[in-house]
Design a protein that fits this description.
Length: about 375
């Protein structure tokens, strides 16, 4: 096989460099805030199936963009803001590396001679699902290169399928169970409740759209998002939740979290913001009792401020740094915005982030 021509998934030779020389391929996808996260892990949603567990997420116009360019034949390069770039031989790409997920995605498609450039509008490791979002955009971009170069495959693959491919790659590299909510929000966009279906491994989720694009646009005035200035590390928190759940500890708490997530979804769909805020605050309190380290002192002050104004507030993902988001009536959020800005000001890097709901998930961008 000549250098630069790798066999793609169908077995035929494919020239990645030649397919990219005319024009780069660029796709973007949105990050998310969430309620009822962790329930998307099979460890939880399979035994909790009688409770019909769901996760709600809101896709945000803080988009991660992946750009594929031609590179040196026989090599792969990944560059991402917030991480040192890495150039590796095609036959020895590192998977145990901060950028290993993206090398693994490229390896799955047999890609080589490709430079993957990742740029995110959200802070690195902010708890908004950034690495999963980038993986979704990368998988879609790799599929597009194959289509452009006549390498076969789907011309316009379904977003949910792209999400499942990206999740499978992430789970393989992580070596532990990984959920799907980040990938689904990135691929599909919008405001959704994802209902997890243990009985059907071939279709383990059902999407329920909670708001139209018009309704989502109105909701933006009822949202607030803050970055705490500290990168999050959810691995230990998630690991503790999993270990305790498997050992039989905290089962009642997780049953209540499943119930509150359904209540939150119903309230959001009905436009009942006070009820949604109450469910959000109760869910956050349960998780804090199980793992107090999910928020630091600044996070606790932000949560207290939200509670005083009858707004719901929650850490994103599994917490332990990253972001907090709040929901409440527009007038209450307006007052909370000023208070949160004052609380965040003394910490370097901490800031309020723009909140716009992304009605669309995966999107091709102009090179």
């Amino acid at each position: 096989m000549t250098s630069g021509r790798r066999r793609h998934l169908g077995g035929e030779p494919f020239d990645w460099v030649g397919s990219l020389e005319g024009e780069p391929v660029v796709f973007s996808a949105p990050c998310r805030v969430d309620m009822g996260g962790t329930l998307d892990l099979p460890t939880f949603f399979v035994p909790l199936a009688p409770l019909h567990p769901c996760t709600v997420n809101l896709a945000l116009e803080l988009r991660t963009t992946v750009r594929l360019e031609p590179h040196v034949r026989g090599r792969l390069k990944v560059s991402s803001r917030g991480f040192p770039g890495l150039d590796a031989p095609r036959d020895r790409p590192p998977f145990r590396h901060p950028l290993g997920l993206f090398f693994a995605a490229a390896a799955m498609f047999g890609a080589e001679g490709v430079h993957v450039r990742i740029d995110s509008a959200s802070p690195p490791r902010s708890g908004l699902g950034g690495s999963s979002v980038a993986a979704v955009a990368l998988v879609r971009a790799l599929l597009e290169v194959r289509r452009r170069g006549g390498g076969g495959g789907d011309i316009a693959p379904e977003p949910a399928r792209v999400a499942r491919i990206a999740q499978a790659i992430e789970e393989a590299v992580a070596g532990v169970p990984c959920g799907m909510q980040d990938q689904l929000a990135a691929a599909c966009g919008g405001v959704n409740a994802w209902e997890w279906k243990a009985a059907d491994p071939a279709a383990p989720f059902r999407r329920r759209r909670l708001l139209s694009r018009t309704g989502a646009k109105r909701l933006e005035k009822s949202l607030l998002l803050a970055y705490l200035g500290v990168p999050h590390d959810s691995a230990d928190v998630n690991g503790r939740w999993i270990r305790d759940f498997l050992a039989g500890r905290g089962r009642a708490a997780w049953r209540e979290i499943a119930s509150l997530s359904r209540s939150f979804a119903a309230a959001l769909q009905e436009g009942d913001l006070p009820r949604a805020a109450e469910a959000m605050s109760r869910e956050t309190a349960i998780r804090r009792r199980m793992t107090p380290e999910v928020v630091d002192e600044l996070g606790r002050r932000l949560l207290d401020a939200a509670r005083r104004r009858a707004c719901g507030a929650r850490f994103t993902g599994a917490g332990a740094g990253g972001c907090l988001w709040a929901l409440g009536p527009p007038e209450a959020i307006a007052g909370l915005q000023a208070e949160w800005a004052e609380l965040l000001a003394p910490r370097p890097g901490a800031a309020l982030l723009p909140v716009g709901i992304a009605g669309r998930g995966l999107r091709a961008e102009r090179p």
